[in-house]
Write a structure and sequence with these properties.
The protein has 142 residues and is mainly beta. It has strands at residues 11-14, 24-28, 38-39, 44-49, 57-65, 73-78, 81-86, 96-102, 110-114, 131-140. The chain is built from no helices and ten strands. The strands form two sheets. Strands 1, 3, 5, 8 and 10 form a five-stranded antiparallel beta sheet that branches. It has a five-stranded antiparallel beta sheet with strand order 2-4-9-6-7, with no helix packed on it.
Length: 142
Amino acid sequence: MIDQTILDYPFTVSFGENAIAPAVESVSGLGAAEGWGRWNNDPRVVIRFERNLPASFEAHIACAVTSANVGRVITVLAGGCCRKFVSIRTLRQGLEVVKIRFQNAKPARTLEILIPDAEPGGIVDPRPLGLALGSVSIVPNA
C-alpha cells in the first residue's frame, strides 16, 4: 500500500516562477519571483507542503545571501530537527547549493528557514534583503 501522506520524492520547488508547484500548499516570507528565484521579505521563510516530508531526507537549498549575511548562520527546521549552515556567496557570485541532512525527523509538512539579518534597502532597491532563494529540493535518504 502506498503512503499517501508522503509526497513523491525527489521533489524540487523552483522560486523563479510566479506559480509555485502544486505539491506546495503555501509559502510565506518570500517576495515576488525574479527569474533566478526570490528574496526573503521576512526573517522566517516557511514552505508548507501538501503532504509529509520523508522522515530522513536531504534538503538541497540553492541560495545566496546579502553581504551582511556572508558567513552568518542560517537555521533550517523540519520535523522537530534543527540544522544550520553558512553561505559564503552573494547573488552577484551566483547561487550555491547547500545540502542539509535530516535524519529520523518527526512527521512534518513544513520546512522553515530562519535568516539572521535583513540588510537595509538602498535608494535603488528599498527592500530589506537577507537570503536569495533559487530552489529547494527534497531528496530522500537511501
